[in-house]
Amino acid sequence: MRRAWIISTGTELTLGQAVGTNAAWLAAQMAELGIRTERHVTIPDDEIAACEVLLQAAGACDVILITGGLGPTADDLTRSALAQAAGVPLELHAPSLEHLRAFFAARGREMPPANRVQALVPRGAGVLRNRCGTAPGLRVELQRTPCYALPGVPFEMRNMFAHEVAPELRAANHDAVLLSRRLHTCGLGEADIGMRISDLMQRGRNPEVGTTASFGIVSVRINAAAPTRAAAEVQLQAEEAELRRRLGPAVFGRDEDTLASVVGRLLASAGQTLCTAESCTGGMIGTLVTDVPGSSQYFRGGIIAYADAVKEGVLGVQRADLEAHGAVSEAVARQMADTAVSLFGSDYAIAVTGVAGPAGGTERKPVGLVFIGLRTPAETTVHEFRFGSDSPREAVRIRSSWTALNLLRLSLQGAPPART
Q: What is the pTM of this model?
């Protein structure tokens, strides 16, 4: 299987002033073409650094993709770095200059003189048409390794890759196809999952299996290589079936599924509705639910009851219970869920109260202690979780939100609740 390096240029990326998305998108596209990305490299706007990385990549892989640095300003140095790496001068490419002039003329503007630099290409390079912007892409041979230079603007880059690069790579590909799938789980720790599927994660195995964890959600990656797409699909389906068998109801979805989207589908298919009553999560659960298109079909609304006065005055929490047990307690979570159902007339309610931190924790009620109430048409249950007194505030809030949605998912699916 051919190997690729993807190089992202931009000082704003190396300084953390912007987050690059091009490399991840390109790596996924390359995998579908049967080309495995071995390295992602991010470099500043520096001609010497770019030249060094390009030459290093040329000696280590079969295809190079570099994004960014093709604009008209002084910090756009990819053209000159490619020319230096190839040992050739830059030359004016007349068709590219005409394209630039036509681009501006179509918008009723005269081309600024600075844009002329975008028509300079390394001698002998191929030019990739830009259908969405001004910067043409480039194709340069570096030590017999093809290097494709694409714009940094994501929609320009994606269009150029699809029309100019992918067809060429596809035509030259005689290797295996690499397809990927992700299964998402909640309720099992990464170590527990690792024990259950350790034999599937052995190095050198095809399909390749690995895990990624984030705030209590563990995703299991499957990469299947085969001579054809159909054969790779068969491998993916068989591996997915085995993983689902071993991990059981902890698997809530795959690929682009989220807990909120899965819960939404379950509610919609059952014709049932949901409301929320949130304290420490501050409306995060409602946000996750309403981020899903079509959520108005099943989400009635929510109350952010941060202050005790709101818990008492709006959600009907008894003052005696607040004084006896505190706002972070089973009794309060239960009453929040029960009253929310009555207020909104919904079938289900999620209620959350806890200590998100970093302050406010005690020995009896440390940071990370959270009570989640779940009201269903049959009963109200309250679950206690301890997400760790050393957990950052964001982690407690996110894990609380995802755990609450997972409890609802399991209830809708008729499965027993799982610890997170």
A: 0.81
